[in-house]
Each structure stands twice: as structure tokens, then as C-alpha cells.
Amino acid sequence: MNRKEYEESFPNYCQNCRGKGIFKDLSKPSFQDCPECLMKNICPQCAEKSKNLILICDECGWDRNSSPRGLPDK
Length: 74
Ligand SMILES: [Zn+2]
Ligand SMILES: [Zn+2]
Description:
Layout: H1 3-9, E1 22-24, E2 31-33
Antiparallel strand pairs: 1-2
Bound molecules: zinc ion (2 copies).
The site of one zinc ion (ZN) has 8 residues, from loops.
């Protein structure tokens, strides 16, 4: 899937982390869960809300442990 196809498939993906679910805060040494989606229990990819911390999204199959994920670079 290329970038355009991704955007068409998941128009609501998180702009803050580009659907990756992790976010690099320049003031901190490591990646952290994205405050705009994962930290609110919202899927980074399809924006579906969950009661629980999202590891794998039931709606779109987004998987926290799979790589690559989120918006493709190209
Ligand atoms: Zn996000
Ligand atoms: Zn999802």
C-alpha cells in the first residue's frame, strides 16, 4: 500500500503520529504513545474509540507490534 492508498483507506488516521501510534517528543529521549490517539484509547489508523488500551484494533487490524505500520513513507 502506498501513501495515497493509505490515506484513501484510512482518511481518519492520526495526523499527529501518522497512524504509527508513537510520537517522538523532542524533549524526551524515547518514543512515547501518541497523546492524540493511543493515550486517548483511539486507534491511530481508523480513529475508532476503545475502552481499553489499543494493542490490536478490531476495526482496521492496526497492530501495535507490527512494523511497518501507519502512513507509508512513500
Ligand atoms: Zn496519534
Ligand atoms: Zn483501527
